[in-house]
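ARCHIVE CARD
Drawer: 12
Card no.: 0347
Subject: one protein chain, sequence and derived structure
Cross-reference: see card 0346
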Amino acid sequence: MFEGVVLKLQHFMTIPPGQHKLPPLPYPYDALEPIISSTLLQIHHDRHHKAYVDGLNKAELETAKSRQSKDFSLIKHWERELAFHGSGHILHSIYWTIMAPRGMGGQPGRRTQNLIANYFGSFPAFKEQFSAAAVDVEASGWAILVWNSSWRRLEILTAEKHQDLTQWGSIPILVLDVWEHAYYLDYQNRRKDYVDAWWQLVNWYEVERRLLLAMGGLTPLTLNNF
């Protein structure tokens, strides 16, 4: 079903500088309870994610001004802002889509299962490594299952903040936010409890779709793309 989507020529709409928008959640605020409370989800999406969108837009507009004026004295700062806020916007957008209410996320798809087994040895081995990576991210960051287009296989990476420790050419297909704002209101300092409970929310239908799109070089930010 999804293979046919990948084979079609798809194109993203070009986003002009400073015109990024906060994507709506694909479910109500209370849809992920009791794993993630409605209060936490609303704050996380409406305030934290929006701050990354706003920061990205500002950074793009400021770099555009630099090009126009030929004054690049602050380019180091604005390039850092582009990386930080842009990565935060992308990862959060994916994070919302790869979660679903408990009992509605299905099971790992055929391609996902096969590629996980081929590289990690088994699904339990993958899950154990991913969870351990998420728990051990230093300070704030992410655990990320990526399709690496250079290696032509899956890999688990972590990101401190949003943008550090990446491998170029990697496309995120399953992401777990372990910044404190993603869990502290519900779990306080018990990050491991949050990580363990989060697996009940994974939308494996969307992970399979993202894997197949990633193999074609595509990274949609919403459920409605492609």
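Annotation on reverse: The chain is about 50% helix and 10% strand. The mean pLDDT is 92.
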